[in-house]
Amino acid sequence: MPDSETSILRATLDTKLYRDIEIPDTKSLYDLGEAIVEAFDFDLDHAFGFYSKLKGHIFDSPVKYELFADMGESDAQSVKHTRISTAFPEVGAKMIFLFDYGDDWRFHLEMIGKGQKQSRVRYPKVIASVGEAPEQYPDYEEG
After folding, report:
1. Is the pLDDT of residue 1 over 50?
2. Is residue 35 within 8 Å of 21, Cβ to Cβ?
């Protein structure tokens, strides 16, 4: 069955703060972005993108996928029409997931494994959760 594989991706904010997410390969990068945001208890209320350049000026990435492309405002590739299997073709593939261009939440993504889709299991699913997620909108005037 061609759509029976899943990707297991680790979304890391720092070494002791990450989520491992299992999601079908056939899902879009938009679905992955939504799963990452949900796994960290954030609201999906900002644009986002995926970038192949892991350090420095990520907007110069040779491979990039942005929600802005789906809105006709970018020369990047689409997040809604790109499958996870295209952006993450093999175990070890890495990208930066940038959520909220203003607050600049940068998640390091790495495909850490493959799996088989199970019947009667809801995907995407968080299979490991390490560390307490930060507040999306911290109150800097408090404390």
Report:
1. no
2. yes
Strand partners, 24: 6
Secondary structure (3-state) at 125? strand
Q: Does the structure show a pLDDT above 60 at 39? A: yes
What is the average pLDDT across 60-86? 93
Residue at token pair 């029976």: 4
End-to-end CA distance of the chain: 55
- pTM surpassing 0.85? yes
Residue 70 predicted with pLDDT over 90 = no
Q: How far is the C-alpha of 120 from the C-alpha of 97, rounded, in Å? A: 29
Class of residue 131 by CB neighbours under 10 A (exposed 0-12, middle 13-18, buried 19+)? middle
